Amino acid sequence: MRDRILLLDDNVTNRGIISDILSGEYRVTEVNDSDKLKHYAENYRNELAAVLVNLLMSQDDDCALLKSIQELEWHNEFPVLVIMGNNSVTLEKRLFEYGISECIRRPFDANLIRLKIRNMVSLFEYQNKLKEVIERQSARLKLQNNMLRTQAELLKRRNDNIIALVGTLVEYRDFESGEHINRVKKYTELLANELMIKFPEYGLTEEKVNVIVAASPLHDIGKIVIPNQILQKPGKLTPEEYEYMKSHTLSGCEILENLNDLWSDEYKRVSMEICHYHHERYDGKGYPEGLSGEQIPISAQIVSVSDVYDALVHERVYKAAIPKDKAYEMIVNGECGVFSPHMLECLRGCREKMESVA
Predict the structure, then answer these.
(1) Cβ–Cβ under 8 Å, residues 75 and 53
(2) Cα 72 to Cα 322: distance, rounded to the nearest angstrom
(3) Which is the catalytic residue, given 142, 223, 319, 324?
(4) Residue 168: alpha-carbon gap to chain centroid
(5) For position 319, what pLDDT does the model report?
(6) Residue 171: is it exposed, middle or buried by C-beta count within 10 angstroms (0-12/13-18/19+)?
(7) Which H, E and C letters describe 45-76, residue by residue?
(8) How big is the chain by its Cα radius of gyration, in Å?
(9) CA dihedral 300, 306, 309, 310 (to 10 degrees)
């Protein structure tokens, strides 16, 4: 409890008068030099309601004491009041520059002294309580933020693990698929970052890019329900077989839909977009919905370019690998699908990095 007044005055009579005025409300500790003032202030730091100092402001020791009080930052914990007989405005301004809270003038007025000290003590009590509340709230918010960051990291790890687990299902169907989805993931990261920088109108952020990249391995998850005689057929598919192959987009969404409550809504939404729409074309001639232009989710547009590029430059059971420069020209010239001009611009921007992907 802060109920102690520390009084510095080298005049015994003055100390007696002020002690009598304040003793009804406070415990008054009297000292007659600055060293004792500092000593008792440190010992009674948690009990002090206020400090009263009688200074003439004409002696070097007085100025040194005020500077020392300012450096010790007493004014942040309790009020420091100066007893003075000079009515100089300049002197009073100088005192406030040292952090002095209030002045008490001689001759002493008992009621005014009690009122000034009572008001200053109440103000500092309020400020200290407010400071404690703010510190507690800040500590609580810091703890909550740390918990949220930990939870977000755990959720991200769980989302990534689920995607990795589901993505490996395709690998078991075809050894090439495992290499394919890893390369598509790298291409997706390059293209998405290029798009984020060059075309901010899409609203991509680092966090959104990370989700798209993480979800990209699921683009062909629906192929696990396609029969091997179609999926690994070395020749051209019949119209009926091609229609069956196209169904992998919808089959993949059905698989992902059954993963309720296992991953976050954002990861699931983006994964579903990619799986459903990565075979749409910018001119509206793709499948399964025939979407055109910017109706196609940007996540699916990015993965679509990545998927086509990888299919061109690597060998498949139905085709030989195409040189990377030739594959680039085919995509830009619209020989293997129609893509957004923005996506083609991003492809140009990260072409060399994509060609270096093993």
Answers:
(1) no
(2) 76
(3) 223
(4) 32
(5) 83
(6) middle
(7) CCCEEEEEEECCCCCHHHHHHHHHHHHHCHHH
(8) 38
(9) -120
Report the alpha-carbon distance of residue 322 to residue 332 in Å, rounded.
Answer: 15
- Between CA 339 and CA 332 the distance in angstroms is 8
3-state DSSP call for residue 337? strand
Q: How far is CA 339 from the centre of its chain?
A: 35
> Cα 277 to chain center, whole Å?
31
Structure tokens at 229: 């005689």
Alpha carbon distance 103, 83 (integer Å): 6
pLDDT at 101 over 90: no
Residue 107, both tokens: 């001759």
Q: Strand pairing partners for 31?
A: 8
Contact present, 315 and 321 (Cβ < 8 Å): yes
Active site residue 223: yes
105 beta partners: 84
Kindly report, residue by residue over 268-312, the tens digit of the pLDDT. Answer: 899 999 999 999 999 999 999 999 999 999 999 999 999 999 999
Residue 265: Cβ within 10 Å count:
7
CA atoms within 13 A on the CB side of 297: 17
pLDDT one-digit tens code per residue, 175-197: 455 688 889 999 999 999 999 99
Task: Write down the number of H helices and E strands in the chain.
Answer: 15, 5
DSSP for 185-250 reads: HHHHHHHHHHHHHH-GGG---HHHHHHHHHHGGGTTGGGGGS-HHHHT-SSPPPHHHHHHHHTHHH
Calpha distance 196→229 (Å, rounded): 40
106, 196, 200, 300, 316 from 297: Cα distances, Å:
80, 14, 15, 5, 28
Strand pairing class (4-8; 48-54):
parallel
* Of 73 and 152, more confident: 73
How many Å from the N-terminal Cα to the C-terminal Cα in the chain?
Answer: 72
Distances (CA, A) of 134 to 73, 153, 260: 19, 28, 41
pLDDT in tens, 15-57: 899 999 999 899 999 998 888 888 988 888 888 999 999 875 4
Residue with tokens 């619209």: 334
